[in-house]
Every structure is written in C-alpha cells, then in structure tokens.
C-alpha cells in the first residue's frame, strides 16, 4: 500500500542557503490495513514523510509509491463559518455531492463518533476533542484508502488526549473498508497503544533505526507490562531512558 525506497529530501536552510537534509536513505513499507505509528526527535522529517506519501512533496532521490492518501494536519483546520456537519461533509461537497446528500451521509457518523446533537454547532461551540473528531471524520469521508495523521492529538490536554486515543482505536477498527494508517506522533506510549508497528526515526536526517511490531490485541492498557516493555524499547532507540 505504501513503499518508500532510499528516499532523500532536503530543503534550503533559511539563513545560510545551505541544503538541510530532512530525510536520507529512508526506506519503509506499510501493508494494506496496517496502522504504523512513526516517532522520532523534533525536526527528523516526520511531517515531510507524510507529505511525500500524500504527494504534496517529491523526493530528491529514491522512490515513493502509495495508494491515494489524505493528510490530517496537526491543527483541525475547520472552517468557522460552517457547522460541524458541513465541515465534516466538505470533501463530499468537493466531490460533487449536493448539500443534502452530504449531510445525509454524515449524519449516521455523528452518532457513531459521539457527536450527536452537535451537527449544527459552529467550531467555537465544540471542545478540542470534538473538533478533532470532526476533522478525522472529514479525513475519513475523503474516501482515500491511506490516512496520514500528523500528531492529531498534540494540542489536547492529557485527559482529553487519553480519551481520544481510545476513541481513535475504536474508530479505526470500525471503519469499513479498513484504511491503511500512517500516524506521526511524539508520544511513544500513544504509538504503542495505537500502532500495529512502531517505527522509530533517527535525529535529522531521518532514517529508520527501529521497526517494532506490536503484536497485542486491542484495546491495550497503558499499564499492561507488555505495553510498558515495548515503550521502553522504543524510547531506548530514541536514546531516552524509560
């Protein structure tokens, strides 16, 4: 479903004009239906990786092959003049559905995602977690088989983040057809709780230093000794003592 082979990507440094390597020799494969969580130090090219997969950037060297992918950015990017339902239905409208058709398609999802009663709410009336659910629903309804999620819960408080991790695990399990997911996060525990694999990147330029299978049934408890052990292995690969 996704294949990157010996990918290199660089950018001009703002002040010096020299080339700044974001990724170098990056190789990664993701099978259909997998949830792969990517962690790494700040600036190691995680967002660049997602944008390459989505076709928003091209590699300087190497190859990127992916089924059609859609990016969910860190910020929810909801339009404040639209209702929650119309925000969620935006990709359907862009694909030619009428407003009535789009709203009808969105309505059953609002109940499934715990948003029933907020269809007509404006963005300022929604909590941070609700806004992220609307943003995720808009991403899901794009119809693309690959979902590229860029730290979707980074801006949330710890309690809401934990709730949203549980919610996302259920939402991905319930989504049909099943989607392939590339999830970037700076939270190693989140990666272990949500991913079928955890891929650890090196400091810039980013390359894979650990590809860690997570062979645990869902839902996963953060207090499970196996989760704790996998988290420790990923942290060790990052050079952090658990």
What key phrases describe this protein's structure?
242 residues, 6-stranded mixed β-sheet, 8 helices, 34% helix, Rossmann fold, 3-stranded antiparallel β-sheet, alpha/beta, 9 strands
Summarize the structure.
This protein has 242 residues and is an alpha/beta fold. Helix content is 34%, strand content 24%.
Written description of the protein model:
Helices cover 34% and strands 24% of the residues. It has 242 residues and is of the alpha/beta class. It has two domains: 2-68 and 144-237, 3-Layer(aba) Sandwich (Rossmann fold); 79-131, no CATH class. Helix 7 (188-194) crosses helix 8. The longest helix is centred in the C-terminal third of the chain and has 17 residues, at 158-174. The radius of gyration is 18 Å and the shape is globular. The mean pLDDT is 90.
Radius of gyration: 18 Å
Overall mean pLDDT score? 90
Number-wise, the strands total: 9
CATH topology description of the largest domain: Rossmann fold
Q: How many discrete domains?
A: 2
Report the principal-axis shape: globular
Major beta sheet, specifics? 6 strands, mixed
Please state the second-level CATH architecture of the largest domain. Answer: 3-Layer(aba) Sandwich
Task: Indicate the CATH class of the largest domain.
Answer: Alpha Beta
Topology:
Blueprint: E1 2-12, E2 19-30, E3 35-39, H1 46-53, E4 61-66, E5 69-72, H2 84-88, H3 90-94, H4 99-112, H5 128-140, E6 146-150, H6 158-174, E7 180-184, H7 188-194, E8 197-201, E9 208-213, H8 225-237
Helix pairs in contact: 7-8
């Amino acid at each position: 479903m996704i294949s990157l082979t010996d990918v290199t990507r660089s950018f001009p440094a703002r002040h010096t004009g020299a080339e700044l390597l974001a990724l170098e020799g990056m190789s990664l494969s993701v099978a259909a239906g997998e949830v792969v969580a990517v962690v790494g130090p700040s600036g190691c090219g995680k967002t660049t990786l997602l944008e390459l997969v989505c076709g928003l950037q091209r590699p300087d060297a190497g190859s990127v092959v992916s089924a059609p992918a859609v990016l969910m950015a860190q910020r929810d990017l909801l339009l404040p003049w639209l209702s929650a339902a119309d925000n969620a239905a935006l990709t359907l409208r862009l694909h030619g559905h009428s407003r009535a058709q789009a709203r009808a398609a969105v309505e059953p999802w609002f109940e499934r995602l715990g948003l029933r009663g907020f269809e007509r709410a404006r963005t300022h009336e929604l909590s941070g977690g609700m806004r992220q659910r609307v943003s995720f629903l808009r991403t899901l309804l794009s119809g693309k088989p690959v979902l590229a999620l860029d730290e979707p819960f980074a801006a949330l408080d710890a309690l809401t983040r934990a709730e949203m991790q549980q919610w996302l695990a259920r939402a991905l399990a319930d989504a049909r057809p099943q989607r392939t997911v590339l999830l970037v996060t700076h939270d190693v525990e989140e990666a272990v709780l949500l991913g079928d694999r955890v891929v650890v990147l090196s400091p810039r330029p980013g390359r894979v230093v650990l590809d860690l299978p997570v062979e645990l049934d869902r839902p996963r408890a953060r207090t499970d000794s196996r989760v704790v052990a996998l988290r420790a292995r990923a942290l060790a690969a990052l050079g952090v003592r658990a």
